Every structure is written in C-alpha cells, then in structure tokens.
Amino acid sequence: MSNLSKDWLLRVDDLSVEFKTPRGIVQAVDHISFDIKPNETLALVGETGCGKSVTARSILKLVPHPQGRYASGSITLKNQSTGTSIDMLSAPLSEVRATRGNRIAMIFQDPGKALNPSLTIGQQLAEVFGEHRVDLLLDKAGFDQNNLPFGAKVFATQKAGFISKNIFKLTHRKDYLKIRKSIDSAVEIALADTGIPNPKKVMSRYPHELSGGMKQRVMIAQALACDPDLLIADEPTTALDVTIQARILDLIKEIQTRRGTAILYITHDLSIVRQFADRLAVMYAGRIVEIGPALEVLANPQHPYTQGLLGAIPKSTTPRGKLAAIAGTVPQLIDPPAQCHFQSRCQWSASACTKNVPLLTELNDNRQVACLRFAGETHKHTQIGELPSQINFRETNNI
Amino acid sequence: MSFSISQHKLNQTNNTKSNDVVTLRNVKLHYPIKEGVLQKIVGAVRAVDGVDLTIKRGQTLGLVGESGCGKTTLGQVIAGLIPATDGEIWLNLDETSQLEIKRLNEIPSEKWDKQDQENWNYLKSQHLLGAMTKQRHRIFRRNCQFVFQDAFSSLNPRQLVRDIVGRPLRVYGEASGNDLEQKVIALLERVGLGPEHMLRFPHQFSGGQRQRISIARALALNPDFVILDEPTSALDVSVQAQILNLLDELQKDLGLTYLFITHDLGVVQHMSDNLAVMYLGKFAELGPTNEVFNNPFHPYTRVLRDSNPSLEIDPGAGVGLRLSGTVPNSIHPPQGCRLHPRCPVAQPECGWEVDDFLQHLETNSPTLFEKIERVERSNAFSVQLGMENEIDAVHLRNETQKINSPLGSALEIAEIKDKNVILRFREVQEIPLLQISTNRSSSCLLAGRTGGINSVIRK
User: Fold this and answer.
1) Is A172's Cβ below 8 Å from some Cβ in B?
2) Which residues of chain A does B266 touch, with a Cβ-Cβ cutoff of 8 Å?
3) Is residue A77 in a domain?
4) Which residues from B are below 8 Å from A276, CB to CB?
5) Which of A355, B123, B238, B397 has the fewest beta carbons under 10 Å from its own?
6) Is residue A347 part of a domain?
7) Which residues of A touch B295 (CB under 8 A)?
8) Is A252 found in the same domain as A148?
9) In whole angstroms, what is the distance from residue A67 CA to residue A155 CA?
10) DSSP H stretches of helix in B205-288
C-alpha cells in the first residue's frame, strides 16, 4: 500500500480473518490495512461485532485456531534499534512468543477475568519478569551471568510461587533469598509505577480483594513490566465507573508520555477518542471505513457511518428526541456480498454501492475514507459494476 | 383545629391526576447483615440512606451515580418491588393532601384530634405505598412500570413476544383472544417493531429490539410513570440513539413521567429535566439538569462532569477535578459529608474521623501503622491508640503534626499517655441536603457559602 507512511512501528497490511461457523464463514476482519507510528495513539473505534477486538488479537496472533483463520495479509513489527522486523503471522511460534508481552503487550477489557484468581498479585507480576526478564532479575540479585549458582536461573524463570519449594532444595538459601528479593523489588517498582498506593501490601493480595480500578492498574503494571514498544488496550475502561475511567486514562496517557510507548486503543466510545488519541480509525462490519487524525475526523467526518456515529452521541446542544440515529442494524457477516456493507443504512446509497467494495481512498496526506463518493479505485475482488463516477447522489455533500 | 379540613375535601381531589407523581420522605433501605448460628443482625448495608425527592408529572428526573451508590435500589423501592425499611413514599399527592400531610407532620401525633387521626388514616390508605388499600395499590401497580437494564435477562426466553407484551393486559383482564393480539400489534408498532415479530422468541432479536420489547411491555397498561433503569447501557451508540429518540417520542405522545436511572452523564444530560446525583445512598445534589451541569454545587457532580469523556470538551483544557481512592464501604459510611475522604476540595469541617487517620497512616507510613497494637474507639471521632513503647507513641504523635491536609486541621487533640496516643477529631453532624436556591439543593458545606465550591477550586 503506497499511501501508508514510512516511519512506522507496526504495519497491518491487507489483513483478513475468517471464522468457520456451522452457518458459514464469518468474515470478521476484511482486508484492513493501517500502521502505527512510534509514540502514537491510534484509536480503533467501532460498534459491537465490527471486528475491532479480532484485529487486536490478530496482532498478538491470539485468534483461536482452528475456528479462526488468517485469510490474507501480514502484520509486521519493526525493531527500531536493530532495524529488523518480524511478521507475526508467518514467524515461528517461538519468535511470536518472545514478542508477546515483551514488545507488544495487551490490556484486556475485564480485569476481573484477565487476572488469575488463585494467584496473588505479586505472583502474577513475577511471572512476567520470570518469562521475559530473567537476566535483569539475576543482575539485580548481584549474580555474575557467567558464573551462576546451581538452580538460580531455574528459580528466576520458575512460574512464581508454584514450585518454589522444590527449587529451594536446589538453590542455596542465601541465593534463593537474593533472587526472591530482586523479584519482589521489580514487582514493587512496576506496581508503584501505575500509582498503586502501598504496593507491598497489594502484592500479597488476591484479585478479588481489589476494586475494579485497582485491578485495571495491576493489569497495566503487568502489561508495562517489560517496557513494550506497543501497548494494545482493548476497551480497558468499559467495565469501570466514569470517575475511575478518567483516572485510568490519565494514567495510560502519563505513562505514554514518560516511556514513549505506542498505543492501539480499542473502544466503542468516540467521546474518549477526542481527549486521548492522535489518530482515529473507524471500523464497520470488518472494514476500516475512515482513518485520519482524531481531531480532524471528529470535526469533519466524511464517511456516512462516522457521521452517523457522531450524530448518535447525545450532546448538550442536540434537542431531545433529535438524535441522528442510524436506521437499521449491522449486517450479518456470514459470506458477505462484495458491496459496501453500510449501503443498506446509508442515506447516500446508490446502485453502484451494491456492486463495488469501496477501498480506502486518500482525501489528503493523512486522511483516508472508504466510500464510493470519494473513490477512484475499488476493491480487489470487486465484480465489474457501474463506475463510481456515474453515481447519482440523492444529496450533495459539503466536500 | 381551625386548619383541619374534612375528609370529604380530601376525597374530592383524590381521583384527579395530581402534579406530584411520587414524593419520598427520608426513604431508607438497609439490608441487614446476619451472622452466626442465630442469624443475629450485626449491621446493615445502607443501600439507600435517607432520600427526599419529588417527581413532577410529565417530567424526566435523571438519577445518576456510580455503581453501588444505590440508584437502582432506589428505583426498585419507588416501584414497590422492595419495601423500604424506613421513610414514606407518597404517591399522586395533590396540593390539598400535601398541605395536610405537612400540617400533620408538624404536630406531634399525641396532640392530634379525632379529625386529624381520621385524615391521616385516610391519606395513608389512599396515597402511602405499603399502607394503601388493595384497590389503590392495584391502580398504582398499573400506573407505574419498570424497564430493566438487561434486556437479555428481563424477557422470559421461553415465551413468545406476543405473550411477553400481552401478559400485563391478560393479568389485568384488559383484553383476550383476538383483541389481545390486536393490542399487542399496536404496541409493537408503537415501539417501532411490526406484527411479524409477534411470534418470535427473545433470542431472535438484537439488543436494541429486545429493549423495544421491554418498553412495549411497560407501555401495555398505559402507565403514567415509567422507571427506566439504565435502558441503554448495554447498547451501542447508534442503537442507543434510536431508543432515546423513541423514549422521548413516547413521553411527548403519552404524557409519561420518567425516572431515568443511568451512569452515563451524556445520556442523562440529553434526556432529563431535573437531575439527582447520588453518592453512597444519599443525594449529593438536586436541581435542573442544565444548571447542575453548568454550575455544579457539589464537588462530586463537578468530578463526574469533568471525568465524563465528551466530544465537547476542549482537548487542550487539561484534566479537570478527579476523585482519589475508591468508594467506601456502605456498612460504615464516612461521617459528615460522605465524600470527604475522596473529595478534592475537602475542608477541616467535612467530618474527618479516626478511620481517615488510620488510612492515611497506612498509606503514608506503613511501618508505624504496623506498630499500633490496640485501637480503642470511644466514638468515630476519638480514639486511643496503644503502641509498643513510648518512643513509637512519640513518633506517632509527631506524625500527626506532619499531616498537611484538612485531616490535620480537623485534629483537635493529640496527646501521649504512657504508651498510648489519644486523638480527637472535630465532631461533625451528618451534612443534610440543603436548599441553596428555589430549585436547587446540595449537600456540600461549601455550596451555601459565597463563591461555592469554585472559590476553593480556583486556589
């Protein structure tokens, strides 16, 4: 894709994800492309079932197999320091595992479900360090990497508290305590970094003893423990109250400015985007319909769906009962026809919209819209239909 | 008694539709906590803890608050689904009855004459939820309907839409057979569905359509008053807009009164005429929606407004007010103002107490906190803390002098007696909801002062 920028951290190119169901193949993600620059926040916005979470999970290659299948495309993560890059979809599993959590981390929607209820907070965070930062732990404990005492490395990598007693037999008590201390201090720093008061006490607690906001902070601490280049936040505040949400968003923003992490922020709430994101991608029925700088898109939306979505949000100026609701419902994505998925709900829909799949077209340097009203080119697997220039619009738009 | 009015006069106004649909007086709902073999009651969860409210006919009252503040419980209490443990819920009170109730409440009940007693009993039997006659209660149940939050669990999965929507009509003997079907079709069309949906099961519908079915069911008996408990929080924005438009249209056409319970400030600002902000079982603020939004009289309202992501806020404006900490336990709600431990503009007289001090100590100097051996409270405001030795006691006393917040200023006495430290904080009564102007009230101490909360925020 020529119209993607050169300086990027993650590039999703022509990604399609399909799910096999008894009723047919669901095209959850349909040929989408976007990229994320270093230190940037990209918000991926869309309604339930539009494929935004599947996109996020694809980046970590977490789509369940064999029901889910990557039908096409690539997801490339560039390493800024070495200049190498990895394709998450085609790379061997060992490399993908080394990337997960280490370079790309994820915060899930419901912290109550994402944390293991049978481990203390300290044990769960220790797992992250054990998985990805063994050398750091051993360094901190004051060991020489070339001359490690027997069992030290095993203890540092072990799955937290599970097998500590067995390892204790292998390791000298003095060494054991040293490693224990270095793990604890790493966890404590990670927790304190997310504004958790009294982290030592929180470490010995179980998830059910913490409030929702606190659990989400623990999740963030866990995600940021390895200082990832990219943080994927999948609706991290949907389960939280508005006052807590504001504080979590403040925290994520603050951490981003401090560490320069790029963020892919997935949400259904356009209102958050304005204060939070640099760029905005709007998804509808598996496709990106509009992408561009957040403030520009919100101020002057071009795709009819984005316009509808913005009109549907209650504002103080909208008179009661006059919300611009989008008529109809989201179409089924089982064996979808090659057409604009929004055409059945669109006020500008024309006969060409049922025959062509609109491609993302550049409006200006950094804005793209997938609507035939702006289209020069159409989708790869489009059947030949009416030319877009022949569309008679029912209404003219201010473009 | 010269003011006493005859029962006949009260009776006259009885059947007309009054201006006030519901009047709450100090309504409480405490869930008892039982313990041990004998199930002894050891405390209570104060879900709703003393609420006064009037809902006017034809209006929408928005009830906002965070999860666990008691807003849904209050809605259920008003609907009569849960009996209140204390307080009075008056229904459909006209002006004459209101004046009479007010007059009777001002006189101690021992001094009532026979006429007063008769009037009181009569009013109770006609208007007081829980004491009214069976017949009156039946009328109330018809007139007050409820739309539940979760349209997935509030529709019976084994029933057809026809049976779900037609159920109220059948229960009240309004219609049957062909007539019932016609009425159900009319109701479905009213909410934007069609006759073809009548013979389907709830699982065949999307979330928005289910909520429409719930609304159709609520409208079946032609009610005056509908309680909407988060009707759109499970829906997407575009569907939410459809439902909100529908609700507004229904209100205009049918003259409905709404109690709109939600946690979404954008929605409540759009939908409601008046707003009640709830925190920990009590109202923080009451008033006309726009005024409350533009000029909040309570810091909690201000925080809610600032925390609410909005398309209208200038992204460069910086962060607004935020709350610290988490919602306290409603078994032992904080003294004074319930918000004070989290409040960004708290004052020394907001009700600082021993618990606040212990929490402060736990976060700021955990080592010293661990050294406390005994905590002997005489009440919420004074305590004797037993330490291991005199040195620790001195440390603790010194720590109290270092507190650089309203908590420190509220500390009146901090003295050492042997190994013990005696602390006493300023005693404060519970802060009631105060009327600030004709139609606005707030339970913040600062609201009554010149400049209100803004005078403190700007500093």
Assistant:
1) no
2) 271, 313-315
3) yes
4) 309
5) B397
6) no
7) none
8) no
9) 37
10) 207-219, 237-254, 265-271
Distance from CA of A353 to the nearest CA of B (A): 22
- CATH number for the domain spanning A260: value is 3.40.50.300
A58 has a pLDDT exceeding 90: yes
Q: Does residue A112 share a domain with residue A2?
A: yes
- Taking CA atoms, A143 is separated from A134, A208, A243, A287, A301, in Å, by 12, 36, 45, 52, 58
Instruction: Look up the pTM and report it.
Output: 0.87
Angle, helices B177-190 vs B207-219, to 10°: value is 120
What count of residues does chain B have? 459
pLDDT of residue A391: 39
ipTM of the predicted structure? 0.85
Q: Which CATH class is domain B352-425?
A: alpha beta
Write down the architecture of domain B145-272 according to CATH. 3-Layer(aba) Sandwich (3.40)
Of B47, B57, B67, B62, whose CA–CA distance to B23 is shortest? B57
For residue A7, is it within any domain?
A: yes
**Domain total in chain A:** 2
What are residue A181's phi and psi, to 5 degrees?
A: -65, -40
Question: How many beta-carbon contacts under 8 Å exist across A and B?
Answer: 127
Q: In what order do the strands lie in the sheet with B86-93?
A: B40-56, B20-35, B86-93
Q: Which helix (H) or strand (E) holds A70?
A: strand A68-78
User: Cα dist. B194→A29, A317, B154, B213, B217 in Å?
Assistant: 33, 32, 21, 11, 14
Query: Could you tell me which chain B residue has the CA closest to the CA of A345?
Result: B238
For A268, which residue in chain B has the nearest alpha carbon? B236
A99 with A135, same domain: the answer is no
Domain ranges for chain B: 145-272, 352-425
pLDDT score of B459 = 47
Helix (H) or strand (E) holding A122: helix A121-132
pLDDT tens figures, B68-96: 899 999 999 999 999 999 999 999 888 88
